[in-house]
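Good morning,

Attaching, inline, the backbone tokens for the sequence recovery test we're adding to the shared suite. The designed sequence is right after.
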């Protein structure tokens, strides 16, 4: 797998983990940049555009939706 795809997968995994840890809120481009060791926000935007084109993410206003995922508030989750 190419380095670009590995970085894109890291970006996706970070977004998913961040949303899980922060009540469904999305990370900023700068948070993604720092967490994934990316050189600039334009590179983050590049990977986000490709994740959207691959139907892995959807951009809604200033946040991301994970395609195929459903978020439940912790108090509504029946997890043990």
């Amino acid at each position: 797998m190419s380095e670009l795809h590995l970085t894109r997968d890291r970006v996706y995994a970070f977004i998913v983990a961040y949303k899980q840890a922060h009540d469904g809120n999305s990370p900023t481009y700068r948070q993604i940049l720092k967490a994934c060791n990316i050189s600039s926000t334009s590179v983050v935007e590049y990977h986000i555009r490709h994740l959207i084109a691959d139907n892995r993410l959807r951009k809604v206003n200033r946040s991301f939706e994970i395609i195929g995922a459903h978020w439940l508030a912790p108090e509504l989750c029946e997890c043990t």
